[in-house]
Write a structure and sequence with these properties.
The structure holds two protein chains of two kinds. By secondary structure, chain A is an alpha+beta fold. Chain A has two domains: about 80 residues, Roll (Ubiquitin-like (UB roll)), CATH 3.10.20; about 70 residues, DNA polymerase, domain 1, CATH 1.10.150.120. Helix content of chain A is about 35%, strand content about 15%. Chain A has six helices and five strands; from the N terminus they run αββαβββαααα. Chain A has a five-stranded mixed β-sheet with strand order 2-1-5-3-4, with helices on one face. Chain A is elongated and about 55 Å long. Chain B is an alpha+beta fold. Among the domains of chain B are: about 50 residues, Uridine Diphospho-n-acetylenolpyruvylglucosamine Reductase, domain 2 (2-Layer Sandwich), CATH 3.30.43.10; about 100 residues, 2-Layer Sandwich (Enolase-like, domain 1), CATH 3.30.390.50. In chain B, the strands form three sheets. A five-stranded antiparallel β-sheet of chain B has the order 4-5-8-6-7. In chain B, strand 2, helix 2 and strand 3 form a beta-alpha-beta unit. In chain B, helix 5 packs antiparallel against helix 9 and helix 12 crosses helix 13. The mean pLDDT of chain B is about 100. The chains are: A alpha+beta, B alpha+beta. At the A-B interface, helix 1, strand 4, helix 4 and helix 5 of A face helix 2, strand 3 and helix 6 of B.
C-alpha cells in the first residue's frame, strides 16, 4: 500500500473563514496552501511579495490579528477566524496614503522597491508596538526585513518620521 | 510540499489520539516545521495543530515557580514582566532570537525542538553529500568540510551538529523543568536533560546522529517551570556574525547569586557548542565562595574548556566560548 493511500479519508480542501483588509471571505484551500501563496494566487493581492519563502527576508510580512508575521510561514488553515492586513489595506478608502507610506516616499526609503510592502507593514507594527524609541531600536526591531539595495538609513529615518507623526 | 491532512483539536486529549496516526506531526507556530517540509527534512501525512489549546500559552506564577506555557510566543515571553523579574536571561534570549515577525509566530515549546542549522543538514533533498541525520549511514560532510559551525563538546564521528536555540540555553541555566504531557499522563524532565549530545545518545545505545532528545513519541511539551530564586540575577549573551537576526556563533547564559561581592551560587550554560545546552559544572562548583573577578572566572572556566575537542574550522569557538562565559557571569553579577 503506498503512503498516499494510507492517508485516511478527509476532504481534500478545507473551508476557512478569513477577513482580509476588512473584507470577510470564505475560501476553500488545500491544507498545504500558505497564506502568502493564497493572497497572491487565489485572491490576487500581489502587493505581498514572495522573496525567500523560508522566513528569512520579510518581504511577505502581513498583519495577522494585528501582529506582523511572515505570510510564507503560515498555512491558511491556521487562519480560521483571523483578520489579515496586507499592504493593499494600508491606504484609506479614498486612496489617501498611510502616514508610514508618506514617510517612506518623503525619505526615499527604497530603491528597487521589492521589499517595500513588507517594510511598510513591518514599520506600521513596529510603531504600534512602541519600538521606535531610538534609531538603534528601530534597526533592531526592523531587522526581519532585508533590503538588498541597502536603503536601511532611509528606512530607519522614515520609520522615525512616521512614528513622530503618529505620536509614538 | 506534499499533501497532508490537517486537524485542529479543541482539547489536548483530542491531540493525543490524532498523534497516534502513523507519520503524524505536531504544528503550533509552524516557523520550523514548514521549512522542514519544504526541504524534505520531514514529510508528515498528518498535521495536528495544537496552536489553540486553551491555556497553553499562559505565563503565570505558581507558588515558588514561574510557569511558561509552551504556546507562548517568543515575543510574549521576551516582553513579559514576570519573565523580566524572575528569569531575565530567558527574556533576553527570546528577544535576541530570530526576527520580530518570526517571534510573533514561533512558540517557546517548538523553539527548543528546532533542529541544527548545519548547512549540510539544512538543504533541499536529495542531498549529494553525506549527512547522517538526513540519511543514516551516509557520513558527515561537516566533519571533513566547513566545520566552523561544529560542536566542540559531546560530538562524535557520526555528527558534529550543534543545537541553535537561544531560549533553550537560558532555560538550562535557570534549572527549568519541562512539563511533558501525553496520553499516558504528565511527567517532568529537567530542561538540561531534554536533549542528547551525540556521545550521550551513543552511550545509551541510540543513533548518535538522529537521537536528539528524550521526548517520547506522542509526548508534547506543555510548559516550562522555572524555580524562583529572588537572590539570583541572570543574563544572556549572544555572539554572532551580524548584530541582529542571525544565528549564534556562541552564546552564554549565566545566573549569579552574590553575597557581599562573593559568589553564593552560580550557573553557566553555553549554547552553539554542542547538540544540547552545555553547563560548566566544574566552574559552577569551584567558584562558590570566590569573589566575582575575571581572573578567578578565567581559571575556573578554563578547566571546563579542557574537555573541548575542536575541528579545524571550529577551533575559534574554544576561546570565544570561554570569553563569552566570563562576560556573561560578570554582566549578571554587575
Amino acid at each position: 500500500m503506498s503512503r498516499d493511500t494510507q492517508i485516511r479519508e478527509q476532504p481534500k480542501t478545507h473551508e476557512v473563514r478569513i477577513r482580509v483588509n476588512g473584507e470577510e471571505r470564505v475560501t476553500e484551500v488545500e491544507a498545504r496552501t500558505s497564506l502568502l501563496d493564497w493572497l497572491r494566487e487565489a485572491i490576487g493581492l500581489t502587493g505581498t511579495k514572495k522573496g525567500c519563502n523560508e522566513g528569512a527576508c520579510g518581504s511577505c510580512t502581513v498583519l495577522v490579528d494585528g501582529r506582523r508575521m511572515n505570510a510564507c510561514m503560515i498555512l491558511v488553515v491556521q487562519c480560521e477566524g483571523s483578520a489579515v492586513t496586507t499592504v493593499e489595506g494600508l491606504a484609506g478608502p479614498d486612496g489617501e496614503l498611510h502616514p508610514v507610506q508618506r514617510a517612506f516616499s518623503a525619505c526615499d526609503a527604497y530603491q528597487c522597491g521589492y521589499c517595500t510592502p513588507g517594510q511598510l507593514i513591518s514599520a506600521v507594527a513596529c510603531i504600534e508596538e512602541g519600538h521606535t524609541g531610538s534609531e538603534e531600536e528601530v534597526r533592531e526591531w526592523m531587522s526581519g526585513n532585508l533590503c538588498r539595495c541597502s536603503a536601511y538609513p532611509q528606512i530607519t529615518a522614515a520609520v522615525m518620521m512616521a512614528a513622530e507623526e503618529l505620536g509614538r | 510540499m506534499k499533501r497532508f491532512t490537517y486537524d485542529r483539536p479543541q482539547l489536548e486529549g483530542g491531540a493525543f489520539s490524532l498523534l497516534e496516526q502513523p507519520e503524524a506531526s505536531v504544528i503550533a507556530g509552524g516557523t520550523e516545521l514548514l521549512n522542514w517540509m519544504r526541504l524534505g527534512i520531514a514529510e508528515p501525512d498528518h498535521l495536528v495543530d495544537i496552536a489553540r489549546l486553551p491555556g497553553w500559552g499562559e505565563i503565570a506564577l505558581d507558588g515558588e515557580t514561574l510557569r511558561i506555557g509552551a504556546l507562548a510566543t517568543l515575543n510574549k515571553v521576551g516582553e513579559h514582566p514576570l519573565v523580566d523579574a524572575h528569569a531575565r536571561a530567558l527574556g533576553e534570549a527570546c528577544l535576541l532570537a530570530a526576527s520580530a515577525q518570526l517571534r510573533n509566530r514561533a512558540t517557546i515549546g517548538g523553539n527548543v525542538l528546532q533542529r541544527t542549522r548545519c548547512v549540510y543538514f539544512r538543504a533541499e533533498a536529495p542531498l549529494t553529500w553525506g549527512c547522517n541525520k538526513r540519511q543514516p549511514g551516509s557520513g558527515c560532510a561537516a566533519i571533513a568540510g566547513h566545520s566552523d559551525d561544529a560542536a566542540i563538546f559531546g560530538w562524535s564521528e557520526s555528527c558534529a551538529a550543534t543545537h541553535p536555540s537561544d531560549p533553550l540555553v537560558a532555560l538550562a541555566c535557570l534549572d527549568a523543568e519541562a512539563e511533558l504531557h501525553s496520553a499516558s499522563g504528565v511527567r517532568r524532565l529537567p530542561v538540561c536533560d531534554l536533549h542528547l549530545s551525540q556521545v550521550e545518545a551513543e552511550a545509551e545505545g541510540e543513533d548518535g546522529a538522529t537521537a536528539e532528545n528524550r521526548l517520547e513519541r506522542g509526548e508534547l511539551i506543555a510548559a516550562y517551570l522555572i524555580p524562583l530564586r529572588p537572590a539570583s540575577r541572570s543574563t544572556y549573551l549572544k555572539v554572532r556574525d551580524r548584530q541582529s537576526f542571525a544565528y549564534s556563533r556562541v552564546t552564554a547564559a549565566a545566573s549569579v547569586e552574590l553575597e557581599d561581592g562573593v559568589i553564593g551560587a552560580l550557573r553557566i550554560a553555553l549554547g552553539s557548542v554542542a547538540q544540547r545546552p552545555w553547563r560548566l559544572g566544574r566552574a559552577e562548583q569551584a567558584l562558590v565562595g570566590e569573589r566575582l573577578e575575571e581572573a578567578s572566572l578565567l581559571a575556573a572556566i578554563e578547566r571546563d574548556m579542557e574537555e573541548a575537542r575542536t575541528l579545524p574550522g571550529s577551533d575559534y569557538k574554544r576561546r570565544l566560548a570561554r570569553n563569552a562565559a566570563i562576560r556573561a557571569v560578570m554582566a549578571a553579577g554587575a
